[in-house]
């Protein structure tokens, strides 16, 4: 054998040996998997108290807000509040220039005094004078009547002519007309008379004008309708303002609500009176209690959500208007429920959910009947018991009856 042929033979044997070693290594690695199955981290079936919650986010809101503006056109003299300030009911919020309004009120009050003096003059002067005029007219009428009787007697006796009798008759008629006029003047000057009615109407009109001027002057100061917090301020001293524009936005103090949008798929779980725990995103570690008080009967078709409102019996001091909050509404509770991780459920939303349950060294398909579902867990009503182990859906591609090597069970979330 030549040296060259011996070298070729040695290389062929070395190649066969390397190939054999590679096959032995591959068998060592894949053998347990092929013979014993893949390693799978199983998940245990637990038993403990279980609470189902509906989780959503929303905002802090009061039942209503007050848009503050002016009722008359004017120039702003002062705005004694700032955004975020707590105000009491009746506290001035906006003050307008009021010099002209005060002058108008003074003029109206003087008109009232004048009308009141006119009415007093009617009662104290004109009425007594009308009574005196009536008495004088009655006396004149009696004198004229007596003179007419005497004239008739004298005419009958031939002492006077027809002209004298006609003059006496005219004097009697004039006296009668004066008596009627005096009586009418007295009736007009009395409290139920027309002059008194006119004077009283003039007084009432003057008083109405004074009330209107007083109201316009009051409009120059805009006060807080209730206690609350100033959210927005859109006015400064010197601005010319007019009715119809919102100058301040006030959040009245009182009941605090959380306005939350709930997925319409959870509507069947909600009912009034459910308790909840909420936290502001700015203070995630500080949770406070709330209660479901209102469920909107309409569904928002654009978002597929239902608006609900939760009352906060004891709102924390840090809670502010329009803060973003997260809410966990407790919709159901089960003591010592059998629980399985949602990660192990196949066809969880279908009519026949199932899991791969560990049976010795194999996994078997196990149908289950589910109850409550929340926070990554589902209540198992039938099909599993506490202590059973199930394979997660996404662990490996394993099928019903497959042999596996179970690893220590991992606790579900």
From TrEMBL:
InterPro entries the record matches: Beta-barrel_RND_2, RND_pump_MFP, UPF0194_transport
SUPFAM superfamilies given in the database record: HlyD-like secretion proteins (SSF111369)
Gene Ontology molecular function terms on file: transmembrane transporter activity
UniProt GO cellular component terms: membrane; periplasmic space
Protein name as annotated: HlyD family secretion protein
UniProt-annotated location(s): Periplasm
Keyword Coiled coil: yes
PANTHER family documented for this protein: EFFLUX SYSTEM COMPONENT YKNX-RELATED, UPF0194 MEMBRANE PROTEIN YBHG
Residues annotated as transmembrane: none
Keyword Coiled coil in record: yes
Organism name: Roseateles toxinivorans
Assigned protein family: Belongs to the UPF0194 family.
Chain coiled-coil ranges: 98-125
Keywords for this protein: Coiled coil, Periplasm, Signal
Primary localization class, coarse: periplasm
